[in-house]
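re: ur question from the group chat, yeah i did fold both. here u go
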Amino acid sequence: MEPGNGPKRTLQIDDDDEAVLGDAKRRNFDKAQDESPKKTESQHAAREKSGRPYQLKGINSKYHVGWISAIHPENVAARAFLDDEYDGPYYKSSTDSNDYTLGKIKEHNVVVAVLPAGEYGVASAAQVAANMMRTFPNIKIGLMVGIGGGAPHQKHDIRLGDVVVSVPRNGFGGVFYYNFGKSIQGKKFRETKHLNMPPTSLLAAVNGLKSQYALRGHPLIKNIDDVLAKYPDLQEEYSRPDPGSDRLYKSDIIHASDDVAPCAEVCSQDPSCLVARSERPKRKEITIHYGLIASADNLLKDAYIRDKLAMEKDVLCFEMEAAGLMDNFPCLAIRGICDYSDTHKNDEWQGYAAMTAAAYAKNLLERVRPEQVEDEKNISEVLSDVQDGVHKLLDTHHERQHQHILDWLTQVNYAPLQSDLLRKRQPQTGQWLLDSTAFQEWIKTSKQTLFCPGIPGAGKTTLTSVVVDYLQERFRGQQNIAIAYIYFRYNFEQTVDDVLLNLLKQLAQTQGSLPSVVEELYDEHKGRQTRPCLDETRRALQVLIPQYPRVFIVIDGLDECQIAGGCRNDFLAEMIDLQANCGTSVFATSRFLPDITEKFDNKSSLNFIGSKQIEIRADVEDIKKYLDGHMHQLPSVVQNNPELQLEIKTRIAEAVDGMFLLAKIYLDFLEDKLTPKAIINALDKFQRRSRGSDSYDRSQVLANAFDDAMQRVNAQSPGRRELALQVLGWTTCARRALTTLELQHALAVEINKPEFDENNLADIQDLVSVCAGLVTIDEESMAIRLVHYTLQEYLENTQDKWFRNPQAQMALKCVTYLSFSAFESGRCQCDQDLEERLRLHPFYIYAARNWGHHAREAETPYEDIEYFLRCQKKAEASSQVFSLLAFQVNPPLLLLGNETREMYGLHLAAYFGIDSAVFGQLVNNDPNSRDGNGRTPISHAAENGHVAIIKVLLDKGAEIDPTPPDHHYSPLKLAVIGNHTAAIELLLENGAFIESNSFSMESHDVFMVHHHRFPHTDRTPLSIAATVSNETIVQLLLDKGAKVDSKDEYGWTPLSHAAMRGHKAIVELLLKKGANIGSKDFMGQTPLMVAADFGNASIVMFLLEKGVDVNSKDGGSRTPLWWASAMSRVATVKLLLEKGAHVDSQDDYEGRTPLILAVMDEDESLVSLLLQNGASCTIKDKDGRTPLSLAEEYGYETIVQMLKRQR
């Protein structure tokens, strides 16, 4: 049954069921089957009262099929399709209030139950099922048969009268239950149950019947005609209505809620209001669909929500009872479609839809053999068997789901680095910082900042790990104290978005359960395969942080945060705002850089709050402890001479002048000094370096130390020297940190050899030992890296001195690896094969993703990579791995076969921007050739901003606006998404269509699915630029003639996108260029409503100052205040109320006010704010519920008391 129509959905007939059906099928049950004497009701009652209910060996015990119908027409249809109908039941539990009809279909004895009149929904269905199992204990299979609301979309042409069968999909058991009672348009859906699968015998029969229908067609139309001929009194209400009454309105066409007239009169039959659909042939008049049914407590009457769930969950149908059965009465749900789950309810199709569902159910039972049913356990036994493990399984599932969501936020994990730093820390070092007055005051006082700058190599990172460890130990077990930490790394690119998502992940992990704000963020994006924008992450943090009395944020290496794109400044601004708004306690380290240190100056209110500073210098005693703990690595001449040990500790501690890194390098330098004199000479050298003028350059001291270390590397035997230089070259120039196994494989590759020789693998300990202490292994992550970022800087600046063209060597090794004969078969066809490939070839992922970058940097000649690019299967195989990582944050194997790329030689060369390879490939390839995803080379070049490649391709005849394959982007859009200004200018200069937009009004009925799965594809370049918040590109496009009010698939203009993102400068720019400040999308939503919806208070204020009506309404009479309340934007609600917003505005869909929305979302602060501003506690929604009755219904006791006090 479709959610919520209740009594008004019941078809009325003049006679009762008995008169309609007649006596044609009524007869007594075969008495020979009753092996026990009949018992009177009093006898049954007496036995039940005694606690020993009578176990019938006949009659009730002979019924193995339970069929539940919710409303009258469903029950009529069920009975009409019984082959025989019997009297009974002869026994019924005293607590069983159900009404039963007993009968037979083929060889199956069937008991049909109907919900009590006027009752419907999950709870009623569950009670009916529970009663049935008490009275009929041998029920083995269950059916929930009736009517439902369809969810037609691009993949499923669902029409009235069609049948939907619940079969498992996407991890669901055919039915999932979501808390729709709290769901409104624009809000997130909350799944509350993952329900049991139907019995195996039914699922097998569904598959068999599906095959039978495919071969011979289905007999449902004939079967219905036969039943109606047998019961002519049913023909008026249960025959197929006029096909002309099957109208699917576009999502934005709404039936007036107070108008009871038919849609044909109220909503118009104008084709422009309807979704165009081709006429079906007679034989396909009824189509069977298999998949997911969504079940809820309340009626769904919203096309937008229908489309959203159809897209995100692939839902085919909505109803209200199956979720009440699946956990307690595992059954198959079968639904005939009577409407489209929107405001255009279609009661005239209910009878026929009930008939189509019942006809299918009968066909299904006729296919199930009695012995199959006999083999099934009784449902009550099944439930008993699994109940003990249910909670544990659910807990495990929830834990995995929560971890999956956290990993979706970011896979960057600083914990292994933290553990490795602590492991390498000399015990008891760093205590001076923990004992300092400034540190202890920072611990005790909230909303304070402790800034610890220091010179390079002073031990800032190690001390940061000490601070993190101290906080974790001090507040262990206190879930109300949250600790998050960040380690910036010199060669590890992280955007502000990445870092804030990591903070969100760490803070969410602190709580015992996954915070709702994180779950909602995931739900918002997972179906669309998009990532949270900075505004969303910021708002989530601002919601989450206040849930803790104290939040500590520890940041190491601010100076190593990348500068490109303003990342460092933006990050500091975000941290300052978080502290100001949420009261975080911040600890940070950095080198002495003016643009960083000024942010910790208390003189400005725009800086960190309550900032105190402690300079990090390697404490002399700490250095001595470190040296003492590592004396064992020196020669025996030192081990046997305590006086020499003391001199080494004293003089190195003096020479390093506060740089812990120097102490390590100097100690490593002494490892090959075998006499006391050699050691003393080295110590003299160390001290001479540190005794220069007062202004000596510490960086030069480090450079000299690194020079010495590299000279030691070069002084080794040829084999060790060559291996060391390879290790150092790879660790310096690799585009990310390599694991030890990746590095071993990379070094073992023999250029141009077709096979990998495992006998060429070097031992990892040897790889470390030959490098004179310059590399280290993080044992938690097994990543190998240089000992310090200053060494990274040194080697990058001097690489020509030490390495022979490392980029070229790395490119050749990667290409050789990808060209191994093991990959001749091309792409893997299943997850298991790919897993095995990656397990056997651990360097494959790095090589596939980075060979082209190294080749471009080295300007590699085409002939060196020609073989690989000409081997289409090997090239395509590499793109499979490359695209998996590019498309997926979670474990990459999950997307195999979905959105993976299939790139060939020319496309790979264009993607990586390798000039020589593009020229070489163009000799035998069309510049407009399509890869496996239908994309051309210019598309890949534009995506990555390779201007020179775009020029080459255009010169060779490439189309500048190739027709993009479905769900992909034009080259211009890709350049806009990537913020590649030069590429955008080049494309526009060569005629790229600036208004490229594949969306049209004719495709409006499918825009929802398309947009959420592939955002931006139906937006103009200007709308995309506004979405990605690039003011420069917005200005460029406007200067080139882009239409300022172009609309996307939602009907959103660029102004709406800028309002959504909260980018005030772009909003101002668009308005200056003439953007319509009151433009409406297809739902009637204006930029002001979008800004309110997304909680961008500054944009709301700006638009109001420009004269926009604070009480303007969209197509559903929803105001900006309504939208802000719906999304719990408290600050925006406060602003709107101050500007005169009507506090009790109601929407046309459900009649909900801002206060009702706040109550449904259990937002106490918003409820309080609205009550303070005069919100009414007595206004009712369309279901007659007040804010108080809703709060009582949901059990929100605090809000109940708030409302009662106000009343």
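okk and heres the other one u asked abt
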Amino acid sequence: MLIMGWDGTEVTPQIRELITDHHLGSILLTAKNLKSAHQTAKLVQELQTIAHNAGHPYPLLIALDQENGGVNSLFDEEHICQFPSSMGQAAAGSPDLSYQLAKATATEVSACGVNLILGPVLDVLTNARYQPLGVRATSDDPQEVSQYGIAAMKGYKDAGVATCGKHFPSYGNLDFLGSSLDIPIITQTLEELALSALVPFRNAIATGKLDAMFVGGCGITNPSMKVAHACLSEQVVDELLREELGFTGVAISECLEMEALRTEMGVRTGTIMAVQAGCDLVLLCRAYDVQLEAISGLKLGLENEVLTKERVYTSLRRVLKMKRGCTDWAKALNPPGISLLKQIHPSHLALSMKAYDDSITVMRDNEKLLPLNESMHQEEELLLLTPLVKPLPASAMTKTILEGSTKIRSENPIHDKWIHRERSAIMSGEGVFRELGRSLARARHGKLLHTSYTANGVRPVHESLIQRASTIILLTADANRNLYQAGFTKHVAMMCSLLKASGHKKNLIVVAVSSPYDFAMDKSIGTYICTFDFTETAMSALVRALCGAFTPHGTLPGTLRKAPRKAVQSSAGGKSKTRTQHWLVEPYDVERDTKGLQDLLFAMVRGSAPNHQYFYAFGPHSFSLLSDMMMVEQQHEEEPKMEEQHFVVRNSSTGALYGFCSTYYLPSTFTGIIGAIFVDPSKRNLSIGYSLHRRAVRNLLQKHPDIKHFQLGCCLPGIFPGIPLDHSDALSMSSAITPGSTTSSTAASSGLKSWLSTTCGWDLSPSSSSVVRTRKIYNLLLPSLQTWSSPPDLPTTLQLAGISFDLIPGGGGSSGRTTNSTPNSSLSAEQESVLSFVSSHSTPEILTLYRLALLQSPPLFSSSALSYSSVSSASPTDPTTYNNNHHNNNHNNTWIIRAKIQSQSQSQSQSQSSQAPGVVEGGGGGAGGGAEQVIGTIIISSDLGRELHLPSLSSASGSSSGGTGGIIAPVVSSMTGQQQQQQQQQANLLLVLQGLVMLGLRQNKREKMACCLLSWVSNGNGSGGSGSRDGGQQQNNSVETLLGMGFEVQQVWEEVVNGVEQFASLA
């Protein structure tokens, strides 16, 4: 009728005597008894052997607290897995997962000989914010507590372990009076308890699978009941638990070594009262003298007939029934031990990682600070602020401390032992989160500052570190009970807000590592994450979440989970439908909105990811079509002009812009374009983006009834050529090609795609009939141009393929032959051939770009002129030398390189001609006309890229002391007709692309450029160029080929074109 424990990791004479002489039949093991799984199995086996030799008819009950989270008694990094707390499991949102975790936990402890788990916790956190129980409970919803508690109970039972619900009648809403001798009090009436706190206990009992019930030691004070200690009250145990709820299993009392209970009535009286109340096992945790006092109390109770034999026999029958259900001598004397644990450990380890990943909850991320690599640069400093907390009993830190104190006890005098103990407490408090800091630094490959904080508040060292860091991660652990943490967090949040207002980047992320209620309702904390415990495994999951290894999907349990659902209602089709707020959308007015757009762009810069920092280079006019473009279009009056119309959501009182959307229309292809949608980071998730998109689509439909297509992304102006993508997501290549890429960016782009698809109505599936075209557009960087060298075999390969190149000036310069077949008689035949080729093999936007390059005159291209007088020192037969005889004195700095293919006879005759070595003069052939065929073009001009707001060129301009060269918009086509049949093996798309890019790099290198940017490389539906319409398998390899030449990926976008029918409902 007693369940006892002791301090120590070995069988002591006292516990041996209790088993042999006093027939103790139940043992409670705690963390102080257990060093490892192997030691636990041996210890339990020894205890059972002692009982067997002493003539016990049934094995000992071996009980253990193994709730997971921060409450585990058995810790062994090699063999025992850590799983989330009860609330953490509920945050994962899967009762089936909770069942699996309970079964895994029970299987592991059963392998060590344990046959009774003191769980599951069935308390309802009626007053969740101020209860010490915290994350040990599932939630504040009695039905949810029931659901997860019963799932855990079934998991324990299926692993062959007895279960014990706790803490009856409830520890979920206690009043504390302050003194250490005061017992926490339940003040709810029985009716109130029946509607909430008692629901999980009633439901668990109804399953018939609950073997035992742990009855708490709290008091109850209400109009119908005055109870000093629940476990000593017949009203609570016999009447409420057994008669009203129908429980027939074993009732276990709270430990009678509680100071208040011992002081008020003594252990003897307490033991008798517990049995009289209906408890079958009375718990005495560790003190041997107290345990002997309890035994003597039972004897005296029987001798004095205060306790009846029938009452004792009733308890014995219940206890023996539970023993028969969970153990026998064969099992008790031969626990599986390490052999079984080694077999199941890998699968349990994977289950643990999944459970913790699923439990991590991001309650708010208003400024999109997650993942870290999307909101801060690698070179920026990250500050970690952590509270001083006591190490968890089952943790590597506690194990280290215990091992150290054991050594101290054996070596040092008593005075030194106390000094060591005090110092250890401080050092261990600092060290609890030390590994978190190290892991976080390793994961992000950047500098991390880490210090702790105490009740002393914000000190000068904290202020100094906050000034240095761009992002601060602040941990709290039960801030509602440790009020200094709440005050410190508020102070730091205020500092970050003031620094941010003065133009400093100060991002604050608050992480609640215990109770999620610390700042759950405080919306001034913009980014708030909950981990539900601070075990090493939980902190590893936190690091993975912060660094984007996975996207957290956990949700706060109970009423906190239900609160966000108010914004969601079910539609007739069964799908969730988010309520949207319709904002007033107005046309963009240049005079009125220029300053507002500038401020909006600045806000975007502060809140944008590192790979979108090219926003710095742009201003309000970056989204407008250039006057130079208008001039080009006027020279082609027979072609309809590209149009633009932009929209804003604005505060009419202050003039501030909350959102901006740019749209364009291409009459030649009947395509409406959504060029960009921006929303102020502080105004997101308010349907502003949705309102802008809706107005933009409606305007294009109404203004252009003949519209056929809608396009996401615009190459001209080129702020956003498409949906921003992660490098690895876009390339679909090996990680070696894109070092350092993570799944976090993929998750971010997936979130944007999800918004475009579910909220805005875009079809983003490439295989869908609504999708006209998808293609990826890349900006690539060659970082060290002056040390770059061209592939040694490439010139020879090009020569053997019969490919030649010539150089055509831009900026309107022409001294060659002209043709009257076009509206612009100033164009040379070579220039006309370029436009004819691009027109046939690319998009109208790219064609306009080439027109700008060829027809625009200074001052657009007026910076340092490029000289092509001594182009190459290549061999006389090097086909990569230019036909430059028309332009040696031209000082334009925008050029077109043209690739051509000739017949074999012409190639042979040319090599014997008297022309300059390696020079191939461009004939008058157009795209496929005459004896030669244009098969590729490329633009060389860094200035043109900056004028057109190419992101990579704009951001890199001036970043290098040697300047940044630009190569823009390669357009490549396969050959046609007989020549394709004869020379297809030699002149392929990738070869032409390599040749064009190599020449561009050579020229930029001669001009002493430090690096070179290659913009508008398409890798979608086409054959290698920007917007190429040709099919071909080679297209998929073009970017990989360029990476092989030394380029690195800077940005990637996905351009998507849908048919107009996709948006018919908005017409």
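fwiw on the second one: The first helix runs from residue 13 to 20. DSSP finds 36 helices and 34 strands in the chain. idk if thats what u expected
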